[in-house]
Amino acid sequence: FYFTGARLAPKEKLDIPVLFMPDTMKMYEAVVVIHVMRENGENWPFEDSAELNDDLKSRVTVAENGGIQGILWMYPVRGIPEAPQQKLVPAVVRCQARQRVERRVEVLLTGVISGASAMPAERNSTMVNANKPANIQEEVQVTDGFSTTVEFLYELQYQSNEIKSQLESLVGMDLVQSERDTESGIVTLVFNIVFAPNKPMRNEATLIVQCAAGGVWKFPVLFIATEPAVDDVINIEAVGLNKESIVGFKLTSQTR
Protein backbone atom coordinates (compact mmCIF):
# COMPACT_ATOMS: atom_id res chain seq x y z
CA PHE A 1 0.00 0.00 0.00
CA TYR A 2 1.05 3.60 -0.43
CA PHE A 3 0.93 6.48 2.02
CA THR A 4 1.70 9.97 0.79
CA GLY A 5 1.63 13.48 2.16
CA ALA A 6 3.63 13.01 5.35
CA ARG A 7 5.54 16.20 6.19
CA LEU A 8 8.71 16.03 8.25
CA ALA A 9 10.48 18.91 9.93
CA PRO A 10 14.28 18.81 10.24
CA LYS A 11 15.41 15.98 12.60
CA GLU A 12 11.82 14.87 13.10
CA LYS A 13 11.05 11.18 13.50
CA LEU A 14 8.65 9.18 11.32
CA ASP A 15 6.86 6.17 12.77
CA ILE A 16 5.68 3.60 10.23
CA PRO A 17 3.27 0.98 11.62
CA VAL A 18 3.64 -2.49 10.11
CA LEU A 19 0.85 -5.04 10.66
CA PHE A 20 1.56 -8.76 10.33
CA MET A 21 -1.28 -11.28 10.48
CA PRO A 22 -0.14 -14.61 8.93
CA ASP A 23 -2.55 -17.36 7.98
CA THR A 24 0.06 -20.06 7.37
CA MET A 25 3.18 -21.11 9.26
CA LYS A 26 5.68 -19.83 6.74
CA MET A 27 7.93 -16.80 6.49
CA TYR A 28 6.74 -13.70 4.64
CA GLU A 29 8.96 -10.97 3.23
CA ALA A 30 8.27 -7.39 2.23
CA VAL A 31 10.12 -4.11 1.79
CA VAL A 32 9.17 -0.76 3.31
CA VAL A 33 10.16 1.96 0.84
CA ILE A 34 10.35 5.62 1.87
CA HIS A 35 10.62 8.25 -0.87
CA VAL A 36 11.54 11.74 0.33
CA MET A 37 11.27 14.91 -1.78
CA ARG A 38 11.64 18.56 -0.88
CA GLU A 39 8.37 20.26 -0.04
CA ASN A 40 9.04 23.22 -2.33
CA GLY A 41 9.56 20.91 -5.30
CA GLU A 42 13.17 21.91 -5.83
CA ASN A 43 15.96 19.40 -6.33
CA TRP A 44 19.03 18.85 -4.25
CA PRO A 45 22.02 20.06 -6.24
CA PHE A 46 24.51 17.38 -7.19
CA GLU A 47 27.22 18.12 -9.72
CA ASP A 48 28.37 14.57 -10.47
CA SER A 49 24.97 12.98 -11.02
CA ALA A 50 26.23 11.30 -14.20
CA GLU A 51 28.91 9.50 -12.23
CA LEU A 52 26.72 7.98 -9.52
CA ASN A 53 27.69 4.45 -8.63
CA ASP A 54 25.17 1.65 -9.00
CA ASP A 55 24.41 1.46 -5.27
CA LEU A 56 23.64 5.16 -5.03
CA LYS A 57 21.59 5.13 -8.24
CA SER A 58 19.18 2.67 -6.63
CA ARG A 59 18.63 5.03 -3.70
CA VAL A 60 18.04 8.38 -5.46
CA THR A 61 15.91 9.70 -8.30
CA VAL A 62 17.81 12.08 -10.56
CA ALA A 63 16.05 14.92 -12.36
CA GLU A 64 16.74 15.89 -15.96
CA ASN A 65 18.77 18.92 -14.91
CA GLY A 66 21.18 16.71 -12.96
CA GLY A 67 19.90 17.41 -9.45
CA ILE A 68 18.57 14.85 -7.04
CA GLN A 69 14.78 14.87 -7.07
CA GLY A 70 14.16 12.29 -4.35
CA ILE A 71 15.93 9.99 -1.92
CA LEU A 72 14.90 6.40 -1.24
CA TRP A 73 15.25 4.39 1.96
CA MET A 74 14.41 0.70 1.71
CA TYR A 75 13.91 -1.45 4.80
CA PRO A 76 13.41 -5.20 4.33
CA VAL A 77 10.78 -6.71 6.63
CA ARG A 78 10.67 -10.40 7.46
CA GLY A 79 7.56 -11.81 9.11
CA ILE A 80 8.05 -15.07 11.01
CA PRO A 81 4.81 -16.59 12.36
CA GLU A 82 4.91 -18.09 15.82
CA ALA A 83 2.44 -20.65 17.14
CA PRO A 84 0.09 -19.16 19.76
CA GLN A 85 1.47 -19.44 23.27
CA GLN A 86 -0.68 -21.57 25.52
CA LYS A 87 -0.35 -22.79 29.07
CA LEU A 88 1.44 -25.97 28.10
CA VAL A 89 2.46 -28.43 30.79
CA PRO A 90 6.27 -28.51 30.78
CA ALA A 91 8.07 -31.71 29.92
CA VAL A 92 9.87 -32.60 33.14
CA VAL A 93 13.34 -34.12 32.96
CA ARG A 94 14.21 -35.30 36.46
CA CYS A 95 17.49 -36.83 37.57
CA GLN A 96 19.41 -37.36 40.79
CA ALA A 97 22.56 -35.27 41.02
CA ARG A 98 25.73 -37.08 39.86
CA GLN A 99 23.59 -39.48 37.83
CA ARG A 100 22.57 -39.54 34.15
CA VAL A 101 19.12 -39.90 32.64
CA GLU A 102 17.69 -40.05 29.11
CA ARG A 103 14.13 -38.97 28.33
CA ARG A 104 12.17 -38.91 25.10
CA VAL A 105 10.05 -35.82 24.61
CA GLU A 106 7.39 -35.68 21.90
CA VAL A 107 6.16 -32.38 20.46
CA LEU A 108 3.30 -31.83 18.02
CA LEU A 109 3.56 -29.09 15.40
CA THR A 110 0.37 -27.83 13.79
CA GLY A 111 0.13 -25.86 10.57
CA VAL A 112 3.42 -27.08 9.07
CA ILE A 113 3.50 -26.47 5.32
CA SER A 114 4.78 -29.28 3.13
CA GLY A 115 6.79 -28.34 0.08
CA ALA A 116 5.05 -25.66 -1.95
CA SER A 117 1.64 -26.23 -0.38
CA ALA A 118 0.39 -23.98 2.39
CA MET A 119 -1.84 -25.31 5.15
CA PRO A 120 -3.87 -22.98 7.37
CA ALA A 121 -2.26 -22.64 10.78
CA GLU A 122 -4.15 -24.33 13.58
CA ARG A 123 -4.83 -22.34 16.70
CA ASN A 124 -3.14 -24.67 19.12
CA SER A 125 0.05 -26.63 19.71
CA THR A 126 0.40 -29.57 22.04
CA MET A 127 3.23 -31.09 23.97
CA VAL A 128 3.38 -34.60 25.34
CA ASN A 129 6.07 -35.85 27.70
CA ALA A 130 6.39 -39.26 26.14
CA ASN A 131 8.87 -41.23 28.27
CA LYS A 132 7.40 -44.38 26.72
CA PRO A 133 9.03 -47.76 26.29
CA ALA A 134 10.41 -48.49 22.87
CA ASN A 135 7.71 -51.08 22.11
CA ILE A 136 4.94 -48.45 22.37
CA GLN A 137 6.63 -46.29 19.77
CA GLU A 138 6.41 -49.14 17.28
CA GLU A 139 2.67 -48.44 17.07
CA VAL A 140 3.43 -45.09 15.40
CA GLN A 141 3.53 -45.43 11.63
CA VAL A 142 5.81 -43.17 9.61
CA THR A 143 3.77 -42.10 6.60
CA ASP A 144 5.22 -41.54 3.14
CA GLY A 145 3.40 -38.21 3.05
CA PHE A 146 6.10 -36.52 5.12
CA SER A 147 8.09 -34.41 2.71
CA THR A 148 11.83 -34.77 3.00
CA THR A 149 12.15 -31.13 1.95
CA VAL A 150 10.70 -29.99 5.28
CA GLU A 151 13.60 -29.40 7.63
CA PHE A 152 13.59 -28.22 11.21
CA LEU A 153 16.04 -26.30 13.34
CA TYR A 154 15.84 -26.63 17.11
CA GLU A 155 17.56 -25.31 20.20
CA LEU A 156 17.11 -24.94 23.93
CA GLN A 157 16.86 -21.38 25.21
CA TYR A 158 17.43 -20.62 28.87
CA GLN A 159 16.13 -17.81 31.05
CA SER A 160 19.55 -16.18 31.45
CA ASN A 161 23.15 -16.52 30.35
CA GLU A 162 24.05 -17.69 33.84
CA ILE A 163 21.59 -20.60 33.64
CA LYS A 164 22.79 -21.34 30.12
CA SER A 165 26.39 -21.60 31.30
CA GLN A 166 25.30 -24.00 34.05
CA LEU A 167 23.14 -26.29 31.90
CA GLU A 168 24.81 -26.17 28.50
CA SER A 169 27.40 -28.79 29.41
CA LEU A 170 24.88 -30.88 31.37
CA VAL A 171 22.15 -31.23 28.75
CA GLY A 172 22.27 -32.93 25.36
CA MET A 173 19.43 -33.11 22.84
CA ASP A 174 18.94 -34.93 19.52
CA LEU A 175 16.03 -35.24 17.11
CA VAL A 176 15.50 -38.99 16.75
CA GLN A 177 12.17 -39.26 14.94
CA SER A 178 9.90 -37.15 12.73
CA GLU A 179 6.63 -38.05 11.09
CA ARG A 180 3.57 -36.40 9.60
CA ASP A 181 -0.09 -37.33 9.75
CA THR A 182 -1.41 -36.95 6.21
CA GLU A 183 -4.99 -36.31 7.32
CA SER A 184 -4.46 -33.68 10.02
CA GLY A 185 -1.13 -32.33 8.75
CA ILE A 186 0.29 -32.49 12.29
CA VAL A 187 4.02 -33.16 12.45
CA THR A 188 5.36 -35.15 15.39
CA LEU A 189 8.96 -34.68 16.46
CA VAL A 190 10.56 -36.94 19.05
CA PHE A 191 13.62 -35.65 20.89
CA ASN A 192 16.02 -37.62 23.03
CA ILE A 193 17.21 -35.44 25.94
CA VAL A 194 20.18 -36.41 28.10
CA PHE A 195 20.52 -34.78 31.53
CA ALA A 196 23.57 -35.36 33.73
CA PRO A 197 23.46 -32.83 36.60
CA ASN A 198 26.36 -32.40 38.99
CA LYS A 199 24.39 -30.71 41.79
CA PRO A 200 20.77 -30.16 42.85
CA MET A 201 18.95 -27.58 40.73
CA ARG A 202 15.61 -26.62 39.21
CA ASN A 203 15.75 -24.63 35.98
CA GLU A 204 13.31 -23.94 33.17
CA ALA A 205 14.14 -23.87 29.48
CA THR A 206 12.26 -23.42 26.22
CA LEU A 207 12.53 -25.83 23.32
CA ILE A 208 12.29 -23.73 20.17
CA VAL A 209 11.56 -25.48 16.88
CA GLN A 210 11.73 -23.57 13.61
CA CYS A 211 10.66 -24.93 10.26
CA ALA A 212 12.83 -24.11 7.26
CA ALA A 213 9.76 -22.40 5.78
CA GLY A 214 9.76 -19.95 8.70
CA GLY A 215 7.26 -21.12 11.34
CA VAL A 216 8.29 -21.16 15.01
CA TRP A 217 6.94 -23.31 17.86
CA LYS A 218 7.93 -23.04 21.54
CA PHE A 219 7.58 -25.66 24.26
CA PRO A 220 8.54 -25.42 27.96
CA VAL A 221 10.97 -27.92 29.50
CA LEU A 222 11.73 -28.22 33.22
CA PHE A 223 15.04 -29.69 34.42
CA ILE A 224 15.05 -30.94 38.01
CA ALA A 225 18.10 -32.39 39.74
CA THR A 226 17.41 -33.90 43.15
CA GLU A 227 19.80 -34.40 46.06
CA PRO A 228 22.61 -36.88 45.32
CA ALA A 229 23.01 -40.18 47.10
CA VAL A 230 24.96 -40.18 50.35
CA ASP A 231 28.65 -40.87 49.71
CA ASP A 232 29.40 -42.47 53.02
CA VAL A 233 28.39 -42.60 56.69
CA ILE A 234 30.87 -41.33 59.28
CA ASN A 235 30.57 -42.77 62.77
CA ILE A 236 32.26 -40.97 65.69
CA GLU A 237 32.54 -42.81 68.98
CA ALA A 238 32.73 -40.78 72.17
CA VAL A 239 35.73 -41.48 74.38
CA GLY A 240 34.12 -39.86 77.40
CA LEU A 241 32.05 -36.95 78.61
CA ASN A 242 33.34 -33.50 77.67
CA LYS A 243 36.14 -35.05 75.63
CA GLU A 244 36.74 -34.58 71.90
CA SER A 245 36.63 -37.48 69.49
CA ILE A 246 38.25 -37.11 66.08
CA VAL A 247 37.74 -39.06 62.85
CA GLY A 248 39.79 -38.36 59.73
CA PHE A 249 38.64 -38.89 56.12
CA LYS A 250 39.84 -37.84 52.67
CA LEU A 251 38.04 -35.72 50.06
CA THR A 252 39.16 -35.94 46.43
CA SER A 253 38.47 -33.01 44.13
CA GLN A 254 37.09 -33.81 40.69
CA THR A 255 38.92 -30.84 39.18
CA ARG A 256 42.18 -29.02 39.75
Automatic annotation (TrEMBL):
PANTHER family: CILIA- AND FLAGELLA-ASSOCIATED PROTEIN 47. One of its GO terms (cellular component) is cilium. Residues 82-226 form the CFAP47-like immunoglobulin-like domain. This is CFA47 protein. GO terms for biological process: sperm axoneme assembly. InterPro entries: Ig_CFAP47. The gene is Cfap47_5.
